[in-house]
Amino acid sequence: MKLLKEKRLTLSEKTARLQKELLRALIVQTAIPICLSFAPCMLSWYTPMFNLKLGKWLNYTGAVALAAFPFIDPVAVILCLPGLRKRIFGEGKAKISSLAVIGMNKLF
Predict the structure, then answer these.
(1) How far is Cα 32 from Cα 22, in angstroms, rounded to an integer?
(2) By the 8 A CB rule, do 86 and 94 touch?
(3) Domain segments of the chain as ranges
(4) pTM for the model
(5) Which of 30, 51, 66, 73 sits at 20 to 30 Å (Cα–Cα) from 3?
(6) What is the pLDDT of residue 79?
(7) Exposed e or buried b for every residue in 55-72, given b needs 16+ CB within 10 A?
(8) Phi/psi zone of residue 9: left (φ > 0), alpha (ψ -120 to 50 degrees), beta?
(9) Which InterPro entries does this entry report, sorted A to Z (predicted)?
(10) For residue 16, what pLDDT band results from cuts at 50, 70 and 90?
(11) How far from each other are the two terminal CA atoms of the chain, in whole angstroms?
């Protein structure tokens, strides 16, 4: 970072856009575990300390949230990144390089 600041290198518009998209995906990937895993666990841990009786629904909700995390996390990343979103949902055609196709053909 220091070298970039010293030389005053500028990023191309495409690189800057890609960096913003990746940062947004990283923020979403950070927020999902906090909301789905950490929050229900902390709530169920602290409710007895404050003598709150929330019942069994909290345990059930926490279990469902923890079980849903492996599905929700990749779906959120797919929805955040336009290249993946176009590939999955077919909004236009995402370009595949010919090298990738040749490499896949060699695998099978």
Answers:
(1) 15
(2) yes
(3) 1-105
(4) 0.61
(5) 30
(6) 86
(7) eeebeeebeebeeeeeee
(8) beta
(9) 7TM_GPCR_serpentine_rcpt_Srj
(10) confident
(11) 42
